[in-house]
């Protein structure tokens, strides 16, 4: 009897060890969680930490080469945080180079089509000098020399107002944006948003969340945190340097796209469309429409998201990078 009990104990221990050991097939990339699945220490485990939907987790491997049932993900920074989740809990994302094919069971980048609209604020203010954010603009303000966030728009363009009440939709369409609810944002996110999105002075952030953000995530913090992370990488790139070096001068769409290629890799320029507007005898660059693939959860970079985006026409051939103030 003792021998049988000991054998059973050893068998159970071995099964647990096999579950917790390194995955038999190693994988690279991340798992973008689709639902709040339980991540367990063992394949048979029913308790553990829940995954956060939309978040990217480092992917360590899968339990077998053929017909795997589980992925192994790393929840923290050490191997002690490796856990097993069902294979249907998320999407496998890998970092692929331009033109590099992906395996059938992999996705070369997140698959949700997104459009990041960024403004050149001085040009915006030429046509709207009475806007609050335009009245207060000056040469030393961040948006005088950096791109301003207009919005992050899930595609297609009809994908708007997700689970929004009729009253909120009516207020938004009537531009009563100050009537829209306050957004629950962390202090650091709110402060950064005021800097990068000067339109917050006119409640643009409430409008963008209600119309577009509700179709991106379940909360405004995630929507704006991801948007600001993309903006930070754009605003510290060769693209921003190109605009600052040519304030008052004409810049071609070809040069803008080339700057994207330099900063974010071959092919990234084909994801950028330039928008211009005539101002008297001048043509001003007012906005860049940048096509990305999402969701944009960490550690997905701006370069990764660009490579996953849809190609687009270049838009206008070029225009002037407008300086601050009425010209």
From TrEMBL:
Family: Belongs to the RNase T2 family.
UniProt source species: Denitrobaculum tricleocarpae
Name the UniProt record assigns to this protein: Ribonuclease
Upper taxonomic lineage: Bacteria, Pseudomonadati, Pseudomonadota, Alphaproteobacteria, Rhodospirillales
UniProt xrefs under SUPFAM superfamilies: Ribonuclease Rh-like (SSF55895)
Signal sequence interval, chain numbering: 1-23
Keyword annotations of the record: Signal
Gene3D superfamilies cross-referenced by the UniProt entry: Ribonuclease T2-like
GO molecular function, one term: RNA binding
Domain of life: Bacteria
């Amino acid at each position: 009897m003792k021998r049988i009990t000991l054998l059973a104990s050893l068998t159970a221990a071995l099964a647990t060890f096999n579950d917790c050991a390194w995955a038999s097939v190693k994988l690279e990339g991340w798992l973008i969680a689709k639902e709040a699945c339980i991540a367990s220490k063992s394949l048979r485990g029913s308790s553990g930490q829940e995954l956060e939907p939309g978040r990217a987790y480092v992917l360590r491997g899968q339990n077998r080469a053929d017909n795997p049932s589980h992925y192994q993900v790393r929840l923290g920074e050490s191997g002690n945080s490796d856990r097993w989740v069902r294979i249907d809990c998320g999407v496998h994302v890998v970092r692929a180079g331009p033109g590099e094919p992906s395996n059938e069971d992999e996705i070369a980048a997140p698959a949700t089509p997104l459009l990041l609209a960024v403004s050149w604020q001085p040009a915006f203010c030429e046509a709207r000098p009475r806007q609050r954010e335009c009245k207060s603009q000056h040469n030393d303000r961040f948006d005088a020399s950096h791109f301003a966030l207009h919005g992050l728009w899930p595609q297609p363009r009809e994908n708007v107002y997700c689970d929004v009440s009729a009253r909120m939709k009516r207020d938004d369409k009537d531009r009563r944006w100050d009537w829209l609810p306050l957004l629950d944002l962390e202090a650091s996110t709110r402060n950064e948003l005021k800097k990068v999105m000067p339109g917050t002075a006119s409640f643009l952030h409430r409008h963008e969340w209600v119309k577009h953000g509700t179709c991106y995530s379940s909360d405004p913090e995630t929507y704006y945190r991801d948007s600001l992370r993309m903006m930070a990488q754009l605003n510290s790139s060769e693209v921003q340097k190109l605009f600052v070096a040519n304030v008052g001068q004409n810049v071609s769409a070809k040069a803008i796209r080339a700057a994207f290629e330099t900063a974010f890799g071959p092919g990234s320029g084909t994801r950028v469309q330039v928008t211009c507007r005539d101002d008297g005898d001048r043509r001003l660059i007012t906005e860049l429409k940048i096509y990305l693939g999402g969701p944009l959860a960490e550690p997905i970079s701006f370069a990764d998201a660009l490579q996953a985006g849809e190609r687009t026409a270049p838009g206008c051939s070029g225009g002037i990078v407008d300086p601050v103030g009425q010209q």
